[in-house]
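Side project, low priority. Logging it here so it doesn't get lost.
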Amino acid sequence: MRFHSLKLVIILLFSASLHAGEWQVDKKANNSVIFSSTTTLLDFQGKTSAIDGYYYNEGDSLFGEKNELYFEVQLATFDTGNGKRDRDMREDVLETDKHPLSFFKGTISKVHQAEEGYTVTAVGDLSLHGIVQKMAIIAQVVEMDNGIKISSAFSFLLKDFKIAAPSLLAFVKVAEKIEIEVNFELKIMDKK
């Protein structure tokens, strides 16, 4: 009986250590952040893999009561496939020389078991163009052998971040609503 109790304690400790701790963006993974915009004449996307950040959690589950997350994107790394559009976006729209990063910092407030993994709601601050807005972002979280995969899709209005919708030509204006899609992986950091 004593052996079985010890075995159960070891299993519980291993399970807790698997979930509690700090998770970092795995920069070797196939990570992506994509924005989509529309005009009356064309749709276009910008893509980057330059996402960084962490998820920290205390407790015996993946989503402990005390948790914190922070993810950032280097805005100058977005590529739309058009050099002039990229330069105009960096210099005139996002002003990446003044505001090089966009970040989301918050906590996971809701967790629901999904068919595959979990659906979570993260509540926090989205910073873009020097403006911070409160947001609730829904994401899908799937545990993998060596980490966690996170995917989410959400949108925001340019005017909420004091960004004027740019014109591609003299008469074609970009839509006010920007769609964002993120897919990235986290790996647990070694405890030392």
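Brief comment: The first helix runs from residue 2 to 19.
Revisit when time allows.
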